[in-house]
Structures are given as C-alpha cells and as structure tokens.
Amino acid sequence: MTIRILIAEDQRIVREGLIALLEDEDDVEIVGEAVNCEQAVAMYEQLNPDVVLMDLQMPIVDGAEATRRIRERSPKAHILVLTTYATDEFIFKALRAGAQGYLLKDTSADDLMHAIRAVAADQTLLAPAVAARVVAGVSGGGPDTLTARELEVLTLMGQGRSNNEIALALRIAPRTTKVHVQNILSKLGATNRTEAVSIAVRQNLLSLS
C-alpha cells in the first residue's frame, strides 16, 4: 500500500530534502507541500493524505494549532511532527493537539521512514528523548500509578516496539510483556497501545516540570 504524504514545512531547503529522501521509497507518495499551517489545514481537507509531516514553527499559525484543527475535522488523521524542538512546551502542546508521532529533525532517514510507516498504521511513535520526557511524570499519586517496569515498557511502546521487541530489550518473557502492556492500558484508560502515551498526556497525568 502506498502511503500518501502531505509535507507542512515553511523552510524550502528542508522541504526539498524531505522530498529527495522520500522519493526513493517505493511505498511513499508525496501528494502536497504546505508552507504554512493555514495551507496545511486546507490541503489536508482537499487531499486527505495518509500522513502529515508537520513542522511546529511556521508563519501565521503554529503546527500544534494546525494539528488540532485537522484532528477536529478528521479525528482519524495521522500527524507526525518533525521539529527541532524537544522542550516540554512543544512536546505536550503537539501531543495534546493530537499528533501521533514526534520526531526531531536530527533523526536518521531509516528512523523517519519507520515512524512514517508506524503512524500510517495508526501507531504512536516518539523519538526516544521525547518518549522519556513524556513518561517521566507518570509517577506517584494513587492506585493507578505505573510501576518502574511499566514506565520502561511504555517508553518502548512510544518508540513503536512490538511486544517481542520489548521483551528482548528488557530481557523478560513475551507473556510478561503482554501483561505489562495490558496493565498500562488499563491504568491509563487507553483502548489500545496507540492511545496509551497520548491519553497519559491529555488526561494531565504527566508533569510539565
């Protein structure tokens, strides 16, 4: 299946670099380029892409607001943030707006393609440094507190790892991993793996400090 991509990026050199990179992939098609967020929202409605690559700092309206508007109109939209910003302010604003992925612009080509495919498949994927900041605040305060091991599992889930990959990384049995995932979903009120990190953010279970 071909993944149709809309690029929302105001810097021409970055857009052209992304286009050059993505054109080499057999399963990707670039269907549009937006240079500001107003244009991104309008082009999403016209083109209905599978994934939006969204910059955060653009003219007129920021990328988080564009993400919110797109998700408001199309709740199943798949938006992958690609930015230079790794601070809490930008991360949490984008995730609360509905972004399913958050990568930094220093990511490798392979990691970018992995993220695009994961987000297109309705998975949540965060850069490791971003995932660590997101789950760091889920500690203390009541019966639904995540354990240290569950935090480790959640971090790896945020990186798009499968149960078997998580089991290998943490040197635990796949069956144990499955139990941890089920506990995380239950504690965070998530209906599936994809929602776990986002729900933790949106329900204010995470510290911004």
TrEMBL record:
<dbReference type="Pfam" id="PF00072">
    <property type="entry name" value="Response_reg"/>
</dbReference>
<dbReference type="InterPro" id="IPR039420">
    <property type="entry name" value="WalR-like"/>
</dbReference>
<dbReference type="InterPro" id="IPR000792">
    <property type="entry name" value="Tscrpt_reg_LuxR_C"/>
</dbReference>
<feature type="domain" description="Response regulatory">
    <location>
        <begin position="4"/>
        <end position="120"/>
    </location>
</feature>
<protein>
    <submittedName>
        <fullName>Two-component transcriptional response regulator, LuxR family</fullName>
    </submittedName>
</protein>
<keyword id="KW-0238">DNA-binding</keyword>
<dbReference type="InterPro" id="IPR058245">
    <property type="entry name" value="NreC/VraR/RcsB-like_REC"/>
</dbReference>
<feature type="modified residue" description="4-aspartylphosphate">
    <location>
        <position position="55"/>
    </location>
</feature>
<feature type="domain" description="HTH luxR-type">
    <location>
        <begin position="139"/>
        <end position="204"/>
    </location>
</feature>
<dbReference type="GO" id="GO:0000160">
    <property type="term" value="P:phosphorelay signal transduction system"/>
</dbReference>
<dbReference type="InterPro" id="IPR001789">
    <property type="entry name" value="Sig_transdc_resp-reg_receiver"/>
</dbReference>
<dbReference type="GO" id="GO:0006355">
    <property type="term" value="P:regulation of DNA-templated transcription"/>
</dbReference>
<dbReference type="GO" id="GO:0003677">
    <property type="term" value="F:DNA binding"/>
</dbReference>
<dbReference type="InterPro" id="IPR016032">
    <property type="entry name" value="Sig_transdc_resp-reg_C-effctor"/>
</dbReference>
<dbReference type="InterPro" id="IPR011006">
    <property type="entry name" value="CheY-like_superfamily"/>
</dbReference>
<keyword id="KW-0597">Phosphoprotein</keyword>
<dbReference type="Pfam" id="PF00196">
    <property type="entry name" value="GerE"/>
</dbReference>
